[in-house]
Design a protein that fits this description.
Pfam families: Peptidase_M42. This protein is α+β, with helices and mostly antiparallel strands. It has 2 domains: 230 residues, 3-Layer(aba) Sandwich (Aminopeptidase); 95 residues, Beta Barrel (Elongation Factor Tu (Ef-tu), domain 3). 24% of the residues lie in helices and 30% in strands. A hairpin with a 2-residue loop joins β15 and β16. The chain is globular and about 65 Å long. The N and C termini lie close together (7 Å). The mean pLDDT is 97.
């Protein structure tokens, strides 16, 4: 199957997803985008009570339901308190690498629908003013949001409608380079969500039917640990499509699809993982096998919720995860090749 012809659709879908602020707990707009995009293709799609978008695709055999899962929630921040001089102290949502946020532009969303802009900064932001500008820790006790409004006191900020509990969403800075790299925050996991939407587009255009009844699941609470806990109850196999990691003691590159044998929760299903390896070999897909000791996925939430479901994990190699991430179009395409092989629409 020629997947390259859908590369432009994949890139545009990814860009559209990255443009929508969606930290865990603030995902309504991204769920609506995914729902509407897939609904327009003619699929049966619904949102569950927590905002997960679920697409049910009938297969040649509906007796063995399987699922693909990617998450559309991201890392983010929330206002913790307002300082006396009118800055916003923050608390993280998920586990962003806070030092990488020093200097990032952001949006502040109030509970009454106002949106303000700002910049995330160290509390010692100027070398000409603060002796510890280069040495002060970059953590939630020592960083704040400078609002782009004339404010000098806590009361000035509150008059804008900004309160503790408001979401702070930082700029993903998405770029596709001429050399094929996707640079952006939140490739984990909007890059993979774009892959699943592209596969649905391919199936619609080419009138393809998967081997088994297949759920395409877009979850909204993965970054805080329970995205996979409300998936359809009849799933027998779950293939989680999330980022692969690139770095020390790991095999995967940004051009490959990573097959994860084990993360911090434990090994993934042996037979499913073997099948993915054999599919990669058979179809000449550029892959690597890795172990991620500081990683968990929707599968962990599913297992903790008591599902009797086997699971495996794949994804494109992503450098600098939870920071300023990067992958390559080859890694995305190789991941897509493995997904279409797994669901049986590549022949």
């Amino acid at each position: 199957m020629d997947l390259i012809q859908y590369q432009d659709f994949l890139i545009q879908t990814a860009k559209s997803l990255f443009e929508i602020d969606s930290p865990s707990g603030f995902t309504t707009k991204v769920s609506e985008y995914v729902y509407n995009t897939i609904k327009e293709m003619g699929y049966s799609v619904y949102c569950n009570n927590l905002g997960n978008v679920i697409v049910k695709v009938e297969g040649k055999d509906n007796s063995h339901p399987v699922a693909l899962s990617s998450h559309i929630d991201t890392l983010g921040l929330m206002v913790r308190s307002i300082t006396n001089d009118g800055q916003l102290m923050i608390t993280p949502i998920g586990s962003p690498i806070l030092p990488t946020l020093d200097g990032e532009y952001c949006n502040i969303y109030t509970r009454d629908g106002q949106i303000y802009t700002g910049t995330i900064l160290s509390l010692s932001p100027a070398i000409h003013v603060f002796d510890d500008a280069t040495t002060r820790p970059r953590d939630e006790k020592n960083m704040a949001v400078r609002i782009d409004e004339i404010v000098n006191t806590k009361e000035d900020v509150k008059a804008l409608g900004i309160e503790a509990g408001d979401f702070v969403c930082y700029n993903p800075k998405t770029i596709f380079t001429e050399s094929g790299f996707l640079k952006s925050r939140f490739i984990d996991d909007k890059g993979c969500a774009a892959l699943l939407i592209t596969i649905l587009k391919i199936m619609e255009k080419q009138k393809l039917v998967p081997q088994n009844l297949t759920y395409f699941c877009f979850t909204t609470h993965e970054e805080i640990g329970y995205g996979g806990s409300t998936l359809p109850s009849d799933i027998e196999e779950l293939l989680v499509v999330d980022m692969g990691c690139v770095g020390a003691d790991l095999n995967c590159t940004e051009q490959q699809v990573s097959i994860c044998a084990k993360d911090k929760v434990g090994p993934y299903d042996y037979e499913m993982t073997n099948n993915l390896i054999q599919l990669s070999k058979r179809h000449k897909i550029n892959y690597a096998i890795d172990i991620y000791p500081s990683y968990s996925s929707d599968a962990a939430a599913m297992w903790r919720a008591g599902y009797n479901t086997r699971s495996a994990l794949i994804g494109p190699g992503v450098h600098a995860s939870h920071g300023m991430e990067r992958t390559h179009i080859e890694g995305l395409i190789n991941t897509m090749k493995l997904i279409v092989s797994y669901i049986g629409i590549n022949e």
